[in-house]
Amino acid sequence: MNFKIREMTHSDIDSILKIEQLCYGAHHWSKESFQTELSNKISSYHCIVDENDNCVGYMGIWKIMDEAHVTNLSVHPDFQNKKLAHKLLLNAIDICYREKIKFITLEVRKSNLKAIHLYEKFGFKSLGYRKKYYQDNNEDALIMWSENIFDKKYKDLYSELSKNL
Q: How many domains does the chain have?
């Protein structure tokens, strides 16, 4: 199956909410949150879609000066383990390269080892945590940062990750 990445639109929000429900249960972003994000000038949201243009995953970033903050990244459970999150993350890095954004940061649940492993594979390092960050269960969040993505070491990593898709 072929997948492509495109900008998220308002018509994608219902599909996104289904993915959110499957991935996060009752504690997920609201329809209004996504609507607001799509009109936020610092936001960039993309979907990964199947051959019928059905959204099976999505990712959002905020672009603030020379930093990008990952707001969310999710893939429908039926489509996980197909490297779709990798593709979404590479797309976000491409945006950062185009817009001269040097660093990428995010928060992730300390218990979400699968996501942590993905981010570490992309060169992110945990540089601290936010205590009781997640309101549903007061779980701590790791704060993760990339290296400067314009450094040769990171560009080499990016190139290797891109080749392996």
A: 1
- Identify the CATH number of the domain in which residue 99 sits: 3.40.630.30
Q: Can 107 be counted among the known catalytic residues? A: yes
Q: Which one of the listed residues 99, 119, 134, 139 is annotated catalytic?
A: 119
In the annotation, is 160 catalytic? Answer: no
Q: Residue 9 to residues 78, 86, 122: CA-CA distances in angstroms?
A: 22, 21, 27
User: Distance between CA atoms of 19 and 29, rounded to whole angstroms?
Assistant: 11
pLDDT at position 134 over 70: no
Global pTM? 0.92
Q: Which residue of the set 107, 133, 139, 147 is catalytic?
A: 107
pLDDT tens digits for range 88-116: 999 999 999 999 999 999 999 888 899 99
